[in-house]
């Protein structure tokens, strides 16, 4: 079956999604949407296409009868584009974040339920062979139960464009990847956050591009995140540098190579002398990152199952992001249940 598909947001990410879509024989592109028609025309030219161009998702879906929206527009537009598509009968796969307010995120879920439309989010950083393999090792108990998890993220990219004008560029546009990875690795959902957000001397962002966050999880684990998007020197990987302290040992993961462990074989034996060092083995084969996440979303759509990154699950990553902003704004610990009302 071919999905008649509209792509909204014809910028740099739109280009990557288009390359993916054109390589699939189960996707038929039928229209482009962008608020700047020249961006959509440039997309047509880049790929040798002659797709009709619209300025709104609603119009594009109504006129083409498309069944699928791929949304790679800016964060502010994701929720309204997805709602317009689902209300017109189309399923949605969208870039992160699914919404920039909790009210919009909850509304998205409500519309997805009412219309029985599929709606899932790109979380490509869940799909590297290293993180999938680390997760399998954690689930197999290599370090016991993870209780204290830390991630450091320090990079200094110069994007220009919308990110440099955003109020919370790091938390809203990037940290959601690391937060989502923490949920994935810990295997539980967060219940509270305390965040200090700031913009140190030398930052070229208008909004706060650095943050320290402490999350408590429902299983008792604590996750601490240190991040900066205006860090010059000693870059971490884009996946972040992780330390996971478990009940019988620790994992260190630099985000690029397989994790390394120091752990005892039996919890009862746990002491410094019984620690055995080991290197993680890659258990994951095949596509990674964006391609893997799009493959998973399409397979879920076609089988009628819920995607791993379905909005009903992903809202917990959004809650980490929005809860962190709320905490920073009021300088207090925020219980994430406060956001789900
Ligand atoms: N998953 C990842 O690793 C990753 C990496 C980069 C960007 N992204 C996400 O992809 C999205 C797009 O980022 P980008 O770097 O391609 O930005 P971009 O600025 O290059 O492109 C965004 C495009 O959306 C268009 N647009 C704006 N409002 C719109 C609307 N209401 N409807 C349709 N189109 C609209 C803009 O005109 C522009 O052409 C963002 O949500 C960003 O967070 C994700």
TrEMBL record:
Gfo/Idh/MocA-like oxidoreductase C-terminal domain ranges (all copies): 139-336
Species: Paenibacillus septentrionalis
Residue spans crossing the bilayer: none
Family: Belongs to the Gfo/Idh/MocA family.
InterPro entries referenced in this protein's UniProt entry, alphabetically: Gfo/Idh/MocA-like_OxRdtase_C, Gfo/Idh/MocA-like_OxRdtase_N, Gfo/Idh/MocA_Oxidoreductases, NAD(P)-bd_dom_sf
Alphabetical list of PANTHER family matching this protein: BILIVERDIN REDUCTASE A
Protein name as it appears in the record: Gfo/Idh/MocA family protein
Gfo/Idh/MocA-like oxidoreductase N-terminal domain: residues covered: 4-121
């Amino acid at each position: 079956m071919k999905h008649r598909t509209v792509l909204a947001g014809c910028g740099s990410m739109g280009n990557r999604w288009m390359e993916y879509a054109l390589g699939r024989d189960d996707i038929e592109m039928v229209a482009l949407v962008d608020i700047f028609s020249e961006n959509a025309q440039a997309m047509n030219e880049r790929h040798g296409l002659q797709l009709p161009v619209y300025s709104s998702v609603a119009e594009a879906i109504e006129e083409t009868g498309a069944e699928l929206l791929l949304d790679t527009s800016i964060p502010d537009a994701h929720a309204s584009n997805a709602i317009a598509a689902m209300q017109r009968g189309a399923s949605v796969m969208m870039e992160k974040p699914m919404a920039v307010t909790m009210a919009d995120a909850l509304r998205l879920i409500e519309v997805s339920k009412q219309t029985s439309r599929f709606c899932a989010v790109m979380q490509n950083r869940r799909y590297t062979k290293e993180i999938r393999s680390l997760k399998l090792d954690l689930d197999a108990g290599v370090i016991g139960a993870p209780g204290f998890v830390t991630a450091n993220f320090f990079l200094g990219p110069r994007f220009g464009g919308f990110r440099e004008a955003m109020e919370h560029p790091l938390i809203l546009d990037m940290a959601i990847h690391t937060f989502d990875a923490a949920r994935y690795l810990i295997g539980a959902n967060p219940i509270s956050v305390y965040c200090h957000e700031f913009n140190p001397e030398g930052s070229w962002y208008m909004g706060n591009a650095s943050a320290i966050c402490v999350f408590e999880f429902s299983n008792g684990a604590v996750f601490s995140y240190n991040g900066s998007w205006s860090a010059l020197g000693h870059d971490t990987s884009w996946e972040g540098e992780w330390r996971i302290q478990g009940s019988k040992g620790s994992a260190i993961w630099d985000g690029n190579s397989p994790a390394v462990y120091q752990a005892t074989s039996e919890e009862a034996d746990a002491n410094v002398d019984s620690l055995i060092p080991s290197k993680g083995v890659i258990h994951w084969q095949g596509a990674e990152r964006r391609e893997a996440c799009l493959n998973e979303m399409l397979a879920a759509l076609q089988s009628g199952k819920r995607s791993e990154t379905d909005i009903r699950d992903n809202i917990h990553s959004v809650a980490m992001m929005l809860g962190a902003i709320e905490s920073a704004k009021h300088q207090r610990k925020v219980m994430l249940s406060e956001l789900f009302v």
